[in-house]
Amino acid sequence: MHKTVLSILLSLIVAVVSNEWQQEYMKREHSLIKPYQGKGMMVPFWDFQGITLVTPNYVRVTPDRQSQSGSLWNSIPCTVPAWEMHVNFKIHGHGKDLFGDGMAIWYTKDRMIQGPVFGNMDYFHGLAIFIDTYSNHNGEHNHQHPFISAMVNNGTLHYDHDRDGTHTSLAGCEVKLRNVYYDTHVAIRYEKNTLTVLTDVDNKGEFKECFKASGVMLPTGYYFGVSAATGELSDNHDILSMRLYELDSSDVTSEDRSKIIPSAEKFESPRDHVDDPKPAWSGTKTFFVMLLIFLLIIAIAIAGISWYRDQQEQAKKRFY
Ligand SMILES: *[C@@H]1O[C@H](CO)[C@@H](O)[C@H](O)[C@H]1NC(C)=O
Ligand SMILES: [Ca+2]
């Protein structure tokens, strides 16, 4: 009896807390989740360009065909100063050794402008996270592909495709994420002028750090987007979901961050990948986890007390 009540109570607490976290901190207006289409054929908060196709289960940014490009763009500028964007995607195709070109996740001033940088415009303002599956210039850099890297631009820098953007890259890491049977994820966290990119590409259900760059200045009011392109080589570039979480930003809420010009401290040369299994939790996340642990302890105490009482009853029955 006690046990059933307790387990119901516990699962209720867990459900409420996790739902609360989702509702409170996931910004629906910057997220793309299933079912994508609302009433009619409209996808609320998102616009599409080029070859991009919305299906019930994924958004195919490009199909596995040569010389295609497409993009999807959030239609609401992001006013949240500290955030974490989770992108669930799949890159797959018929090519065994040759495939490309890759895709990019954007947080930029302009949106819906087609161009040469994975289907989007060059000389952009803001942040690009490139998932580059094809090495255009073997020998120029000492990393393997696919390679995830970041670039911050104030509108003056050119993305050099022939060199895989090596000269303008902030940091990066190698990832094996193509043609796997499970979904792959990338998380982009921006808080306290620090950019952290994490990946979950091993089907383990946990993120590990790809790189972290401090001194990254990004304004509020830019747009999230994803673009992809194929050239002589091709791949399906599929987006399954995008979820934007608001992080605790009590330290910066008084600042006006809308006028910031995008910039980053000195570009670092690509360094070796360092695993960081310790996830950095936001204050709110930590709070809920502590609350959950606290409630669990209380539940265990209640269970313990009632068990003890039952034992006493039993003992009394035996004695009398
Ligand atoms: C834009 O970025 C370039 C290269 O980092 C820098 O030299 C230039 O001063 C920046 N311009 C502005 C207006 O911040
Ligand atoms: Ca490339």
UniProtKB/TrEMBL annotation:
InterPro entries: ConA-like_dom_sf (IPR013320), Intracellular_Lectin-GPT (IPR051136), Lectin_leg (IPR005052). Its main location: membrane. It comes from the Eukaryota. The keyword Membrane applies. It is found in: Membrane. Residues 1-18 form the signal peptide. It is a single-pass type I membrane protein. The chain crosses the membrane at residues 287-308. Residues 24-247 form the L-type lectin-like domain. Keywords: Membrane, Signal, Transmembrane, Transmembrane helix. This is Legume-like lectin family.
